[in-house]
Amino acid sequence: MNFGFLGAFIMFALLISYNIRRQSRASRNNEKDFWARELKSNSVRRKSLDGLNYIRIPLESFPTHILNENSTVMECIDTLETLTDQKIVNLTGWTNTDLKLEYGTANITALTEYDQNYTLLVRTLQKWADELIAANYHKEASVLMEFAVSTSTDVSQTYYHLADYWISRGEPGQVERLIRTAEGLRSASRNTIVRHLKEKSGQC
């Protein structure tokens, strides 16, 4: 019998067993912490939402006079016009538990609506920008995408298209600015966006 192999196999099995137990213990602790926070959040009283970073859509500065015959563009403009009357807040990266702990359980419905409005906003901006890019209106598309970035969007294509635009204009410093913005995102896609931007700028 190859005792060396048997010993190695036993050590390997013990290591696997240890890792499984450790992961199981960590999972139980995480679940326990989650439910503790959730229980606490449900008792937080309503707080003022006046301090939220509400987003105003500067529709007057957007290229609404271009591609008026394009149905997709007009649909995007109509959507943004509707959103101008709504409250919009970027809450990307916040869980419902986080929001309840910070602003109170009674505000969760309103906050969810504000965040849904934000998601619709940044997706609509990129949809409009894509149509402009396809028609070679790159400068005009950059106006929409720069506004989206100023709100800390996590729509990856917004960053990638803007990076391509600034690189084509010989302004790599603008890509550095996009990287810094992306590094500050709360989104799960932050690292992916940063990595791709660095690749585009030749840092990887």
Summary, kept brief:
This protein is mainly alpha-helical and 204 residues long.
Using DSSP, what is the number of strands? 0
**Strand percent estimate:** under 5%
Biggest sheet record: none
Q: Residue ranges: pLDDT <50 for 5 or more in a row?
A: none
The Rg value, from CA coordinates, equals 24 Å
Average pLDDT, all residues = 87
Structural class: mainly alpha
Instruction: Please give the share of residues in helix.
Output: 55-70%
Describe what you observe in this structure:
The chain is an all-alpha fold and 204 residues long. Helix content is 67%, strand content 0%. α1 (3-41) packs parallel to α3 (96-103) and α5 (138-150) packs across α6.
Which labels suit this protein?
single chain, 8 helices, flat
Map the helices and strands:
Layout: H1 3-41, H2 71-83, H3 96-103, H4 108-134, H5 138-150, H6 156-168, H7 172-183, H8 190-200
Helix pairs in contact: 1-3, 2-4, 4-5, 5-6, 6-7, 6-8, 7-8
